[in-house]
Specification:
The complex is a heterodimer.
Chain A: H1 11-30, E1 62-64, E2 70-72, E3 80-86, H2 93-110, E4 118-124, H3 132-142, E5 147-149, H4 153-163, E6 167-170, E7 179-183, E8 186-189, E9 195-199, H5 205-218
Parallel strand pairs in A: 3-4, 4-5
Antiparallel strand pairs in A: 1-2, 3-8, 6-7, 8-9
Chain B: H1 2-18, E1 28-36, E2 44-53, E3 59-66, E4 69-80, E5 83-88, E6 92-94, E7 99-102, E8 107-114, E9 123-130, E10 134-143
Parallel strand pairs in B: 1-10
Antiparallel strand pairs in B: 1-2, 2-7, 2-8, 3-6, 3-9, 4-5, 4-8, 9-10
Classes of the chains: A alpha/beta, B mainly beta.
Bound molecules: copper (II) ion.
Copper (II) ion binds near residues 46, 75, 86 and 110 of chain B.
Chain lengths: ~220, ~150
Amino acid sequence: MPDPAPPRRHTLRNVLLTLLAVLGVSLAMWASVPPAPVASDGPPPPPANSLPVVAGLGGEFRLPATTGQDLALSSLRGKVVLLNFGFTQCPDVCPTTLTRLGKVLRELADDGVDMRRVQPLFVTFDPERDSLPHLREYVAYFHPSLIGLRGDQDQTAALARQYKVIYLKQDTGSAGGYVFQHSDFVYVIDGWGRVRLLVGGKDPDVALFEAVKRLLREDPA
Amino acid sequence: MKFLLVCLVLCAPLAVAAEPPAAGVSGIVVSDGWIRQVPPVSRNSAGYLVVENRGAADDMLLGASVEGVRVTELHEMVRKGDTLMMQRRPAIAVPAGGQVALAPGGLHLMLIDLQRPLQAGEKRAAVLRFRDAGEREVVLEVRAPREGR
Ligand SMILES: [Cu+2]
């Protein structure tokens, strides 16, 4: 990974890709998405009193990971996945989200949850500046089980579209270089790889804690 | 034991010096200054503090510099719908009789290019530049944010 390249090089493409993502979100908000048909041999529908499947986003992905290998969502069957997006030069929002993620993970462990069944992931949308070794050190600081994912620009944009993540590269004239305007949801994904809840920055930590416990109860290993 | 006593006597005023806010003639009082502890691999962090203006005239925070940090800028996190965006601010107004909190999720001192990693509990000297009150020396303590926020 070379040192920070001049930010302008990819700006146009990024803006275009992100505009596409934004368009996707708007479309999803206006179109009513019919419930996905469930094949008889597919995942069981969630219990009526539990969290519904979030329609219109999510799905399989495979990206290079800080474990040294590619990581596919489908390899995490049976685990509750907490998926979060950001960039390591983000000084305020991303560390806040990751700090709370670490705190909730520790609370779950204290509560007796089998932590082998919970997998937190952090995807960078800044592959230009976030190398895998850098990302590895960064995520480990917040929680030892956190895995960082880093695709190339196209993989990152594709995953963002898939999950309706908004990220827009911005040059604010800061000495720190470009930053991203971005959404800050944590995606709570069940053992079948389906998104079941989006937890925003303003939602309480307990929402995350409860969602994990609920999904684990629903789908005993 | 004697050493401990000497240390207590010597260190106590230092620890206290950071705490009680001192109002100058202008009435600008700065308190609760801290820096977000970040992974050692991070090159950026954020500084937070509360500026109170006990004076009768409006003032403005124009800039800051922090020990061991190459560039410090004034920034603000702005929420737009489901997204957050960091903006650079040329100045932060501190109205007469009012106070402004630089806090996570909002206004902050943007610390760019940490020249050495931040150690928890470490105290960094900083200078705040105000339009009318001039330069103010403050101490920012490095700490992990409370419960994420
Ligand atoms: Cu900033």
